[in-house]
Write a structure and sequence with these properties.
Number of domains: 2
Largest sheet: 7 strands, mixed
Number of helices: 8
Family: Belongs to the HypE family.
CATH topology of the largest domain: Phosphoribosyl-aminoimidazole Synthetase, Chain A, domain 2
CATH class of the largest domain: Alpha Beta
Organism: Pseudodesulfovibrio portus
Protein name: Hydrogenase expression/formation protein HypE
Order of helices and strands: HEEEHEHEEEHHEHEHEHEEE
InterPro entries: HypE (IPR011854), PurM-like_C_dom (IPR010918), PurM-like_C_sf (IPR036676), PurM-like_N (IPR016188), PurM-like_N_sf (IPR036921)
Helix content: 25-40%
Pfam family, one: AIRS
Length: 334
């Protein structure tokens, strides 16, 4: 293959076949994908969760990951938030003519590592190459599907007054990493993305706990926006304890300098867990036993005081409303 991706690689001819067989099947191949049918034959049972997403992150390489691993993690996590075991994925690439083949190879190999760790199979895919300037380097679309293993499944409209609000770890890491890498900023301490597949931890959580009302990953719009979505859907209020929010000092310092609020920065390896108060400590024990949940903590409580609102109780005892993110604090974050 050439050193750069050429339009020929999207033609469907010999060049396309070389790219598929040598790069994609060579790294992502499995019994189903290797059949190269127009559709995959899947084995699922009962209720299923399905999610689709497109990834356009800029830059495509960043500390802690790249667009390939991010695409796998994002889709696996979305399926797992429904109390499901992710099983299958599809993957479609839209590649800009001239993308270095070495870059594409790194992206595909990182996807292969990510799906192996998550325990899912990429069973169908597509590749398009477009003229230079039609896209920025590479965009990736993925769809995931998995078996729901709990009934009822966690849902954004299921939060109840009195529920405990937990977070699996520190917030704002991914968003600040992308901004710092994009703008060439040099922070005093290392900042890297938290991008990770959370499905193994989430499966243990829903299997061992008798009741989980909501599971959500606070990606675009961050923690504050995601909680607003939940409170609106569930018609309850979320009271957050500012002193309990887990934010790394380097993230807090970077946000202070740049005028950003970590509550609105994207996260790609964290999840919100909302469940009855009686199960909160057990949930934290399960989360903290996993490396991806070692910084888990309780950050708030659901109440019926101000339905549909998110209220931050400040360190001084005051209260302020946290609204939905207005505009785009940081575009192309995932």
């Amino acid at each position: 293959m050439s050193e750069k991706v050429l339009l020929d690689y999207g033609s469907g001819g010999r060049a396309s076949q070389r790219l598929i067989s040598q790069l994609f099947l060579g790294n992502l191949g499995n019994d189903e994908l290797n059949r190269l049918n127009d559709a995959a034959e899947l084995a699922v049972s009962g209720r299923v969760a399905m999610s689709t997403d497109s990834f356009t992150v800029d830059p495509i390489f960043f500390p802690g990951g790249n667009i390939g691993s991010l695409a796998v993690h994002g889709t696996v996590n979305d399926v797992a938030m429904m109390g499901a075991i992710p099983k299958y994925m599809t993957c479609a690439y839209i590649i800009e003519e001239g993308l270095p083949m070495d870059d594409l190879e790194v992206i595909v190999k990182s996807m292969a590592e990510a799906v192996e760790h998550a325990g899912v199979l990429i069973v169908s895919g597509d590749t398009k190459v477009v003229p230079k300037g039609a896209v920025d380097k590479i965009f990736i679309n993925t769809t995931g599907i998995g078996d729901i293993i709990v009934d009822p499944a966690p849902s954004g409209d299921s939060a109840r007054s009195g529920d405990a609000v937990l977070i699996s770890g520190t917030i704002g890491d991914h968003g600040l990493t992308i901004l710092g890498t994009r703008e060439g900023l040099d922070f005093e301490a290392e900042v890297k993305s938290d991008s990770a597949a959370l499905n193994h931890l989430l499966v243990r959580l829903v299997q061992e706990l008798p009741e989980v009302h909501v599971l959500r990953d606070p990606t675009r719009g961050g923690l504050a926006t995601t909680l607003n979505e939940i409170t609106t859907s569930s018609n309850v209020c979320c009271e957050l304890n500012e002193n309990a929010l887990p934010i790394r000092p380097e993230v807090k310092g970077g946000c202070s300098i740049l005028g950003l609020d970590p509550l609105y920065l994207a996260n790609e390896g964290k999840f919100i867990c909302i469940l009855p108060e009686a199960h909160a400590e057990q949930a934290l024990e399960i989360m903290r036993a996993d490396p991806l949940g070692q910084d888990a903590c309780r950050i708030g409580t659901m109440t019926d005081a101000n339905p549909g609102k998110v209220v931050l109780v400040t360190g001084l005892g005051g209260k302020r409303l946290l609204g939905m993110l207005e505009g785009e604090q940081l575009p192309r974050i995932c």
